[in-house]
Amino acid sequence: MYGERANPPAALLQFTRYEKIVEALGGHGEYCERPEEIGPAIQRAIDSGKPALVNIKIRQDRGAPKGSHYA
Asked: Record's InterPro entries (predicted)?
């Protein structure tokens, strides 16, 4: 049926390095894979004084249930 999806639209973009887009536009990009990387990455983003994006890779088996549309 129209409008129903099994996965959110972004589910097709696994492992997309969005921070590289921000860097290409002159901003500050960070990529994190482990929880201990997040705090320092956020601090570097703030310290950069530029528009910034911190891209955090999450486990595929965690998060919102499949088919849900939580933000």
From this structure: THDP-binding, TPP_enzyme_TPP-bd
Q: Which residues contact 5 (CB under 8 A, 6 or more apart)?
A: 67
Cα–Cα distance measured from residue 71 to residue 64, given in angstroms and rounded to the nearest whole number: 9
Report the distance separating Cα 25 and Cα 43, nearest Å. 20
Contact yes or no for 28/22 (Cβ under 8 A): yes
The residue extents of the domains of the chain are 13-56
Model confidence pLDDT, tens digit, residues 15-33:
789 999 999 999 999 999 9
